[in-house]
Amino acid sequence: MKKTTSIHIKGMNFLFEEDAYELLQDYMDRLNHGLRNEKGNKEIVEDIELRIAELCSSMLNDKKQVIEIEDIKSILETLGDPSQYIDEEEASKSTYSKESFDGSKNKDRHLFRDVDNATISGVCAGIANYFKIDVVIIRAIFIVMFLFGGFGFPLYIILWIIVPKANSTIDKLRMRGKAITVDSVREEVENAGNRLTKETNKISNRLRNDDTIHRRVSSIGRLISVLFGTGLILFGLFWLVMLLIFGAAGLQFIPVQSDSGFLSLSDFSNLVLSNESDNTMAWIGGFVAGFSAIFFVLLLGIKLVFKIRNKWSKRALGLLFISGFIGTILCVFIGLKTGREMTNEGEIERLVGSVQCEQLVIQSHHSNNRKSGSFEVKTDDDFNFITLKGENIEEGGIHFEYRLSDDSLFHIKQNLSAHAHTHRSAVAKAKNIKHSVSLDSTVLNVNAHYSFPKSDKLRDQEVYIIIEIPEGKSVKINRQIIRLGSDEFNEEIIDEYYEEHGVLNNDGEYNHHD
Amino acid sequence: MSLENTQAQMRKGILEYCILSILDKSEAYPSEILEKLKDAKLIVVEGTLYPLLMRLKNDELLAYRWEESPSGPPRKYYVLTKMGKTFLEELQTTWSELSEAVNKLTQNK
């Protein structure tokens, strides 16, 4: 087993065994030294490099991919040692009348996209070649323009479109201007280091043989995957922060009226879930699922942006997926368990009183204490918030149901309902509802709020006031007169199922639904 | 004065003339030129050709153009310049005179 080095000679890539490379390097050093006084020495070296590249590529085939020391020995033998063909005396003696027109080649540098050293499309690498500066500087300038200028992105796209790709090796030579010498090859080898392994070399060779369209598509794909990956990372970070704030830090953001102000999500879930162990399970499930999903997205984004392809990251993704799945299952399980608590409705009904009069007046009572500390809680009036008072939950919003009375009396009933797993416990929960309603001659006093113990949890507790109105009589509530039907629809009024509804909101406002 | 050195000197003198003659027939890239020279046993080591080509080019007797190779690195195709052509014609007369003279001298021995 031997270590290999990747070098390129005149735009061609070769894998050299390290000792083979050292031997060649030594030869090139001696050649350069021997030719140091020769006019056009760099070009001679270049020509000899070309010949070496030619001989090397003739030695390689599908089975043989690496240049070994024996190959280099035979190549150097054919070329002959520099001392055999360089007559130093003659070289220094010889005079030449004219400047070589080789000099013009220097100015003949062209702007190409350097796809071999590309991150996205090779625009930056090409510019760096053109100005002979480090590509990192060009990339930094572009990134700064992307971030602050706004014109960096369109400029980049335009350059991508108009600057041709360095397709052939000749293009590549022209792109770099003065050709590669041994020094630049050596530099390249030093830089190459771990960048080029045999595997990536194969891939890049394959890519180079593909047509332009394929190349461009793949770099557009790269751009998209970088953009998409960045999006995923930002998305993941956002939700990570959200989860930490609302979940872990216990920020009190659910606007519930209570002695202590707003409720945190965990306090709220405590009011919904039947017991402490359910609550704990739901929270563990939620956190596991949430963090797994977030880290999954983050890792995926990082993989896309930084082109990471290894077993470790794949395994991590798989693991996160499984833990997310388990967390979700736990949440669903708790959700189903809690949902089961809602399956049975239990209700109790009692007669508040009966009265004979022309008009029943309903007086609503509500405490306007929607305050949280020194702050008043601003809420949408249609939204019925719960209020925590000591060990009780107070809810607003009383439903009114109007029916036609069988006789000439007003009959007022109070109906309390709740949900639970069994009918019995639902009825028990309904019984626990406290709501004050009283008939004082022709005035019905109704409290807009009702309460029930915290330990009963939120189980869709509702209060209905059912008022049976005799034919032709009316109910007055908050300056609103309710009469069942009208003269034109006499037949409908006789229908015993005829009903009308209304809701008394917790702020004392009454909404009637026809 | 060693034999080897003398042989090398003799070869070197006519090598330029031979290269120009090869290129007079058609343009060629170094490997093609090398093949012909090696066939004729005019050169031993390939390296000899390159400094020579460069000198001929610097003297504007040769010019070159780049061409892609179907396999391997790009090739430098060398052609004779106008100056190269007249230079070659001069060399041809010199060579025929020389070979005649040499033949005469060696046969008369």
Strand-helix topology:
The complex is a heterodimer of chains A (514) and B (109).
Chain A (H helix, E strand, L loop, with lengths): L3 E6 L2 E6 H17 L6 H19 L6 E2 L1 H11 L2 H4 L2 H6 L10 H4 L15 H9 L3 H15 L2 H11 L6 H7 L6 H11 L5 H12 L2 H37 L3 E3 L8 E2 H8 L3 H31 L4 H30 L3 E12 L3 E7 L5 E2 L2 E2 L9 E4 L2 E5 L1 E7 L5 E11 L2 H9 L5 E4 L2 E5 L1 E5 L8 E8 L4 E4 L2 E4 L6 H5 L4 E6 L5 E4 L1
Parallel strand pairs in A: 2-3, 7-15, 7-18, 12-17
Antiparallel strand pairs in A: 1-2, 4-5, 6-13, 8-9, 10-11, 11-16, 12-20, 13-17, 14-15, 18-19, 20-21
Chain B lengths: L2 H23 L4 H10 L9 H10 L3 E6 L7 E6 L1 H26 L2
Helix pairs in contact in B: 1-4
Question: If you had to describe this structure to a student in words, what would you say it looks like?
Answer:
- The complex is a heterodimer of chains A (514) and B (109).
- Chain A is of the alpha+beta class and 514 residues long.
- In chain A, 48% of the residues lie in helices and 21% in strands.
- In chain A, helix 2 crosses helix 3 (69-79) and helix 15 (276-306) runs antiparallel to helix 16 (311-340).
- The longest helix of chain A is centred in the middle third of the chain and has 37 residues, at 212-248.
- Chain B is mainly alpha-helical and 109 residues long.
- Chain B has helices spanning 3-25, 30-39, 49-58, 82-107, and strands at residues 62-67, 75-80.
- In chain B, a hairpin with a 7-residue loop joins strand 1 and strand 2 (75-80).
- The A-B interface holds A 9-12, 35, 38-40, 43-44, 47-48, 50-51, 53-54, 57-58, 78-82, 84-86, 91, 94, 96-98, 100, 168-170, 173 and B 30-31, 44-48, 50-51, 53-55, 57-60, 66, 68-69, 71-76.
